[in-house]
Design brief:
CATH architecture of the largest domain: Sandwich
Oligomer: single chain
Number of helices: 1
Order of helices and strands: HEEEEEEEEEEEEEE
Distance between the termini: 49 Å
Family: Belongs to the intradiol ring-cleavage dioxygenase family.
Protein name: Dioxygenase
Structural class: mainly beta
Number of strands: 14
Bound molecules: fe (ii) ion
Number of domains: 2
GO molecular function: dioxygenase activity
Strand content: 15-25%
Keywords: Dioxygenase, Hydrolase, Membrane, Oxidoreductase, Transmembrane, Transmembrane helix
Organism: Streptomyces olivaceiscleroticus
């Protein structure tokens, strides 16, 4: 297990500077997974000391892709495709992890691979089978949900999930996700506050949220799924898809995530949903 210990790092936990698209979407009331609605302040936007980090006002700075972390010794290829890792009689606290995968232009990435693996409630990895291992793909909105248990602790590490994330045809991001308020976060040299999930209690267990940002190029132009309403005026009641373009008050905007427009969600006031182009 010590193999997973990192070499001494000069990178200490620091103030989280994450894209806040999802957080803004929540504030704007945009359509998001039920598991994310009504949650507390996103834990991943908190520093290791609990202080709120400054908000990033727009999801277009392109400077904060999800950090990489070491794979560790327990990854196994060819995990089964599944979103639910629970098995009958499996001990542990139930956990769901929901979120989105975004690309460099802050547009959602559909069909992105997420391959999760983790320790069981006892802190052990299944190195002979595929218990608590599984891969899945983001849906058309770039969203994913994993159903599993809270991983147990094992010597030398704080609580964590392992994951590989890959946009179609792009390099693999290998990283780990962390839980807030874990005592060992302060002593695990690998811990990175930028990889903290937002975790709350609920639904008979714990619900976590995290959105990945991959350092992959994206064309924020027309949606590949069909002709966008290019040039048409933004209008309430319209179902927009990521990549759709509209005009509003003489300016052009591109849709960042699918939603149905409502009063108060005008593009200039909903940066989670629209970006000026
Ligand atoms: Fe691990």
């Amino acid at each position: 297990m010590d193999n997973e210990r990192p070499s001494p790092s000069t990178e200490s936990p620091r103030l989280v500077r994450r894209k806040t698209l999802l957080r803004t979407a929540l504030a704007a009331g945009a359509a998001v997974p039920v598991a994310l609605i009504g949650g507390p302040a996103l834990a991943r936007t908190l520093s290791s000391t609990g202080a709120a980090a400054p908000l990033t006002p727009a999801c277009d700075d392109g400077d904060d892709p999800t950090p990489e972390q070491m794979e560790g010794p327990y990854f196994k290829p060819h995990s089964p495709q599944r979103t639910d890792l629970l098995e009958p009689g499996m001990p542990g606290t139930r956990l769901t992890v929901s979120g989105y995968v975004f690309g460099g232009a802050c547009l959602p990435v559909s069909g992105a691979l997420l391959d999760f693996w983790q320790a069981d409630d006892n802190g052990d990895y299944d190195n002979t089978g595929f218990r608590l291992r599984g891969h899945q793909y983001t849906d058309s909105r770039g969203a994913f949900t994993l159903t599993t248990i809270v991983p147990g602790l094992y010597p030398g590490r704080t609580r964590h999930l392992h994951v590989k994330v890959q946009a179609p045809g792009r390099p693999v991001l290998t990283t780990q996700l962390y839980f807030p308020n874990e005592p060992r976060n302060n002593t695990d040299m690998l811990f990175d506050a930028r990889l903290l999930m937002n975790v709350r209690n609920g639904n008979g267990g714990r619900e976590a949220a995290f959105d990945f940002v991959l350092d992959v190029p994206q064309d924020p132009g027309p949606s590949p799924t069909g002709p966008p309403p290019s040039g048409s005026a933004w209008a309430t009641g319209t179902a927009y898809r990521a990549g759709d373009r509209v005009t509003h008050a003489g300016r052009a905007y591109v849709c960042l995530q699918a939603h149905t427009a409502q009063p108060g969600w005008e593009p200039p006031t909903a940066p989670a949903l629209w970006r000026a182009v």
